[in-house]
Design brief:
heterodimer; A: 151 residues; alpha+beta; Muramoyl-pentapeptide Carboxypeptidase, domain 2; 4-stranded antiparallel beta sheet; 5 helices; B: 197 residues; 4 helices; 42% helix; Trafficking protein particle complex subunit 6A (chain A)
Chain lengths: 151, 197
């Protein structure tokens, strides 16, 4: 879905337009992603029973959600079994249009904020509160760190 | 595609060779869903950040414009259409090829009785509002789909056609139909040489 030219164009424009105001912009972009994550997660899990634990929810994220949105699974999922998860996508669809290597690295946060929100929103819909941050070691790979909040 | 057509007539039925879409219809529908959901979330976010409807409308239009000036390249590359020779050919192209390609719908085209530069696209189905039943409370002047106007305006500008594009009717605002008005701002020069097909 994220490979559709219309979505790509919208995502890129949101990254530029909303982030013209720096700090506030990243939050707004994440907010947009959050709403989309909630909605998508709702639609994708309508028929399935609820997940038995957070690891199952993360696996759904890395497989079903990621394939639906980014056309591939997350390449690597790691956890410390204490609520922190690291998702690595080596060919992140939303970055692959930008560059290969170190170019535009400083722009990367703008292009990850939506997805951070998406992950957060999806998990929220499944009953998990989390904080999500992302980094780009080298284009076009990205790492998302998810920390599940214990209520 | 070599049907003999009479070029003298104002022929509104055009044989377009649509680009081959390899994905099945349902995959195509899914592909649009992310865009529609994201668009809705964007409008909601903008409503949070801007109190006045006009500000949200302007923002959407500006974003649409920026998208349009880039999207037109994607469109031209994927559709391989010939250069349009009249405003009505251009509008037909927007309705029958571009809308179809990106949104999966084909608005019907009509033109004004009084001004030859003014056209209307009537959107019977509009995927952007698939999940929208009504405008949010207190937002009765919101042009929910205003991004579309900006996209059309930006795309037209890239092919050197200046136009004003606005929603002249909007079902979400209580009108019977949803209609986009395109008014070309300069008179297109008459092409003296007509090439036979």
């Amino acid at each position: 879905m994220a490979d559709s030219p219309l979505f790509q164009a919208l995502h890129m424009e949101m990254a530029h337009a909303l982030c013209a105001e720096q700090e506030k912009g990243l939050g707004a972009l994440e907010g947009v992603g959050f709403r989309v994550g909630q909605g998508l997660s709702e639609r994708l899990t309508k028929e399935t029973p609820s997940f038995k634990d957070e690891l199952d929810a993360l696996k759904f994220l890395c497989k079903d959600l990621w394939i639906t949105v980014f056309k591939k699974q997350v390449d690597n999922l790691r956890t410390n079994h204490q609520g922190t998860y690291m998702l690595q996508d080596n060919q992140f669809l939303l970055l692959s249009q930008l560059s290969n290597g170190k170019q535009y690295l400083e722009e990367a946060p703008k292009f990850l904020a939506f997805t951070c929100g998406l992950v957060k929103g999806a998990l929220s819909n499944l009953g998990f509160d989390s904080t999500v941050t992302a980094e780009v070691p080298v284009m076009p790979s990205s790492k998302f760190q998810v920390v599940i909040q214990k209520s | 595609m070599s049907r003999p057509t009479n070029r003298r007539q104002d022929n509104h039925k055009i044989d377009w060779h649509l680009p081959s879409i390899s994905s099945s219809a349902s995959a195509h529908h899914m592909s649009r869903e992310l865009f529609v959901l994201t668009y809705g979330a964007l409008v909601a976010q903008l409503c949070k950040d801007y109190e006045k409807d006009e500000d949200v409308n302007k923002y959407l239009d500006r974003m649409g414009y920026d998208i349009g000036i880039r999207l037109v390249e994607d469109f031209l590359a994927r559709s391989a259409v010939r250069k349009c020779r009249s405003y009505s050919e251009t509008v037909d192209m927007i309705a029958q090829v571009a809308f179809k390609m990106y949104l999966g719908v084909t608005p019907s085209v009509s033109c004004s009785n009084t001004t030859e530069n003014e056209f209307f696209l009537m959107l019977d189905k509009n995927p952007l509002v698939d999940f929208v039943e009504e405008l949010p409370a207190g937002r009765c002047s919101l042009c929910y789909c205003n991004l579309l106007c900006g996209v059309i305006r930006g795309a037209l500008e890239m092919v050197h056609l200046a136009a004003e594009v606005t929603f002249v009717q909007d079902r979400l605002k209580g009108d019977d139909v949803t209609e986009i008005g395109i008014t070309f701002l300069k008179k297109l020069e008459d092409k003296k040489h007509k090439r036979k097909k």
